[in-house]
Amino acid sequence: MTGVNSFQVSGYGPERAGWTRLFARDSLARRLDWPILLAALALSLLGTLLVYSATRNRTELNQGDPYYFLVRHLLNTGIGLVLMVGTVWLGHRTLRTAVPILYGLSVFLILLVLTPLGSTINGAHSWIKLPGGFSLQPSEFVKVTIILGMAMLLATRVDAGDRQYPDHRTVVQALGLAAVPMLIVMLMPDLGSVMVMVVIVLGVLLASGASNRWVFGLIGAGTMGAIAVWQLGVLDDYQIARFAAFANPSLDPAGVGYNTNQARIAIGSGGLTGSGLFHGSQTTGQFVPEQQTDFVFTVAGEELGFVGGGLIILLLGVILWRACRIARETTELYGTIVAAGIVAWFAFQAFENIGMTLGIMPVTGLPLPFVSYGGSSMFAVWVAVGLLQSIRVQRPMSA
Amino acid sequence: MTNIPETGRTPRVQIRLVVIQVLVLSLLGTLGGRLWYLQIREGDAYAKEASGNHVQQVVQPAVRGSILDARGVPLADNETRLVVSASRTDLLKMEDDGKAVLTKLAGVLGMTPKEVMGKVRLCDAETPQPCWNGSPYQPIPITDEATPKQALQIRERAEDFPGITAEPQALRRYPSPGEANTAQVLGYLSPVTDEELQQAKDTDSPYLRSDQVGRSGLEREYDKELRGKAGVTRYEVDNLGRVIGQAEADAAQAGSNLVTSIDARVQRVAEYELNDAMKKARDAWDRNTGEKYKADSGAVVVMEAKTGRIVAMASNPTYDPNAWVGGISAKDYKKLTGKASNYPLLNRAIQGQSAPGSIFKVVPTAAAVNAGYSFDGPYQCSSSYSIGGQVFKNFESKGYGPISLGRALEVSCDTVFYRLSHEEWKRDGGTKPKKNAGDWFYKTAHQFGLGAETGIDLPNEVTGRIPDRQWKQDYWKANKDAWCKYGKKGGSYAEQIAYENCLEGNRMRAGDSVNYSIGQGDTLVTPIQMATIYGAISNGGTLYDPTVGKAIVSADGKTVQEIAPKSHGRLPISRQTLAAMDDALAGVATRGTAAWRFADVGWPQDKIPMHAKTGTAEVYGKQTTSWFATYTKDYTVVMTISQGGTGSGASGPAVRNIYDALYGVSDDGTINKKNALLPTPQKSLPKVRTDGTITSPKVGKDPAKEQRASQENKAAPDEQQLAGTVATPTAENRDTRRRRGRSRRRGSRRVLT
């Protein structure tokens, strides 16, 4: 405590109260879930290095400044942290009351994407160009609002003690709430995000205690939907090609299979400890497209090897493990559903993203939470961390 | 804030949350497992694939080493051409993709910018010629005919021409010093094949698509040494092929020079004399066939007797090896290999085989002594020898009475050898050989190295053939079906022969052994085999592997790897027999069948003892083969001309002229050391300086013609005086002076061989 004393002596008295309050027993800082926070922070910083490694030579992307993406990724992380603090400060319960506004706003934004204001990147029409080189991907925020909205609908009557489980009517309402933005996103078409949303809905329904019929029904409907989408030709050629390349990786290595093939070579060549940060030849030679965003895991795989790639999976595991605990330990269903939704989101998105670089999942354009470059994704996942913290902070201490 | 009433966690939700947790963890576990599989289990394979992905090789060719004669005169070297090339990698780094530099370059080279840019663009389906179809990482040649001034302009202003190089590049050249073409010995190069390219791809000396590989002769035998090591630079490239770094660079190592024992001047003399002898033979009348001699091919070998080193080796017909340089045209190729070509690519000194005739007789002489017959005899040299009604005549049916084996060699008495061979054949059991048959006549031939390669350092040497019992058996087995089908009792001559062969072709008949004893019948030898044998008789009995390569000298002259003479055995004869045989062979040159080419026409036998043996081999359906085998204490010269006439008649003058040139002997028998090309074999090696240049003496325009002139003693008076100190020309000498006109007249005279 000498440090604190010296602060006192040098005249920082007024601060003292704040510091001690922050670390006092039962204080906010003490009740925060530090493993989640630290793991998320570690992933973001690791991501900064990997994004930098992937982009420092890509002059056509970084506009001549090798640190362009590094600075922006750090900035995004910073904004993400602020959003997290804001979320904790507001609290998930307050946000519950704001669900109609948030929902309306995100639906408006994704509708905006469909207007000429939206722009197409990699075949998906899911961005809104903002001035200053920034762009917004509203589907990321939709994931949060679906979780919050469904949780609100499903939990209200249960938390009020009216019922033990959400009734069918509520479930229908909740599904309807999720379906609207999902349909719009599907029109973009941003198939990856739709897949994540389906899994989120599934996770939310599971955690809500809705009857098994709904859960299995949804799984069945999802499967039917997938078949229908395939049969009806809703998919673009490039999407079909991606699935074909997944089914047969050696197919057309210069074309469709190129991504997966090069990604796997990059990761495979990493070995146990990798070629060293900034020394990966696949990365330096820019053999893997979209390496700072969707394929960022290949940088870790090549330059940091099994150790680095394993660390990323481990850090994600820490976040998911703690989030599951939060879901189980919170006393109100609303918090449980939100936490479970976030778990479903992070888990599936991470699995799909890393899985496609490892060649066990088809290629879709999904970022790796915290690690991939991209503001919207970064903000959304940090808001989610804020929600988890809020649920954790606001549950009564077990002691 | 926790004022919402406890609802109590329902077990269903709790269970489902656990399910979610387990599901999530198993997903992460799957990822971890897959990561382990890719990186640890399959990591090596992927690492290899990755390195193939981003490493590009650029190969710099090594300059091929020269082939030098014994004094350093280049027989094969490289012509330097100034090649201006552009590096695409460097050009693409410039803002305008190098357009400005190429335009400037076009100005210097006197080309249009369009021409230059056309040459550096890469070929693809839509790009018409001109375009570059090689590796984009290889410097692309823009011209190979730059003048030194242009090259200097480019090199002096290197900063104005980034990515452009003006460097001398080597192209093979066979300069034929003093008209010595040496074609079959040198061999030739031809472009590397796809297969070879593929095979050498991962070695430390890969081929370039433009590489040339030695295909025959010395170029092939010493290809590895001459080729050197190509330099390899490995660049790391990105996904678009742009160079992002240099991985490693091994500089090219120029090929070593091959110093041969060939003397360009002697080679020229040998080639000229062989050709001249063949030309003259074609003017001579063949009484047997009633037409002029065809003299379709011939060969001559000049060998150092004490080491087996080849001083000259000529084969006729010949060709210009420069035809192969820069790729042979289809027309030229047909000319060299077509049916009408008479196969000039063959080196007949090592690939031409024919019956040796009487020059073979040294073998049965040794065989007889080994079988227990006395060298001194005497043996009856009758005019003919008959076996069961079949009469084997001596040449021109001449008899010499009882003589020694030595005298039989001298006068080339066939009947002496018929008788001895027949006796031995009978002793061995005749057509039904005993188990412990001595087979001395055949065994000795094998011990002389016949029927096997001499081991000369030239590719595709043929073995010749000794028709011993084993060979007869094998040959019969291979051919009996054809013989039995064609043969007819009482049919035409050929049918009758086939019929007999079918019945008993596997048996050694008396006639076979008799024919064999004088180097006829199925016996085949190569000139190089005979040179090796006569060299061994000269040097006291050692059979040396003939060698053309004498030393391999690195491009900077620093390391010299000498190729030491190697022996593959000794003649199976005692010192006394050898000495007696040596005497007899000297007798051939002084009193015997070759005297009219040597002793009778002013050969200084007392100063340079000459030994010789002539041979005239009969070939079924063809004119006789001329053979002439000779040796002094330092050299062996063996010449043969197919369908050329008698040994001394057709080949004699040429061999004499070669000796005249070696020792500087004039037509009148005086020795003029100044004219001697190589009175003793060249011992020292030429010097290769550290900068790669080679000190070599000048070779006259045509040593053969210069020799002819000097031999006729048209030299300056003081030279004549000098020559006079060696041997004073006498009136008699002048009388017997060998003139070409007279030689020809004498050549038509039938003599014993």
Automatic annotation (TrEMBL), chain A:
First-listed, main subcellular location of the protein, grouped into a coarse class: membrane
Topology with respect to the bilayer: Multi-pass membrane protein
Catalytic activity of the protein: [GlcNAc-(1->4)-Mur2Ac(oyl-L-Ala-gamma-D-Glu-L-Lys-D-Ala-D-Ala)](n)-di-trans,octa-cis-undecaprenyl diphosphate + beta-D-GlcNAc-(1->4)-Mur2Ac(oyl-L-Ala-gamma-D-Glu-L-Lys-D-Ala-D-Ala)-di-trans,octa-cis-undecaprenyl diphosphate = [GlcNAc-(1->4)-Mur2Ac(oyl-L-Ala-gamma-D-Glu-L-Lys-D-Ala-D-Ala)](n+1)-di-trans,octa-cis-undecaprenyl diphosphate + di-trans,octa-cis-undecaprenyl diphosphate + H(+)
GO biological process, one term: cell division
UniProt KW keywords: Cell shape, Membrane, Transmembrane, Transmembrane helix
TM annotation in the entry: 34-55, 67-90, 102-121, 141-158, 170-188, 194-210, 215-233, 304-321, 333-351, 371-388
Enzymatic class: transferase
PROSITE patterns: FTSW_RODA_SPOVE
Annotated localization: Membrane
EC numbers, comma separated: 2.4.99.28
PANTHER family noted in UniProt: CELL CYCLE PROTEIN
Descriptive protein name: peptidoglycan glycosyltransferase
Taxonomic source organism: Streptomyces regalis
Lineage: Bacteria, Bacillati, Actinomycetota, Actinomycetes, Kitasatosporales
UniProtKB/TrEMBL annotation, chain B:
Signal sequence, renumbered to the chain: none
Stated family: Belongs to the transpeptidase family.
Single biological process term from Gene Ontology: peptidoglycan biosynthetic process
Domain Penicillin-binding protein dimerisation: 60-246
Keywords: Cell inner membrane, Cell membrane, Cell shape, Cell wall biogenesis/degradation, Hydrolase, Membrane, Peptidoglycan synthesis, Protease, Transmembrane, Transmembrane helix
Pfam families: PBP_dimer, Transpeptidase
Name of the protein in question: Penicillin-binding protein
Biased composition (Basic and acidic residues): 699-717
Transmembrane segments: 17-37
GO CC, any one term: plasma membrane
InterPro entries the UniProt entry points to: Beta-lactam/transpept (IPR050515), Beta-lactam/transpept-like (IPR012338), PBP_dimer (IPR005311), PBP_dimer_sf (IPR036138), PCN-bd_Tpept (IPR001460), Penicillin-binding_protein_2 (IPR017790)
Membrane topology: Single-pass membrane protein
Regions of compositional bias (Basic residues) in chain numbering: 736-753
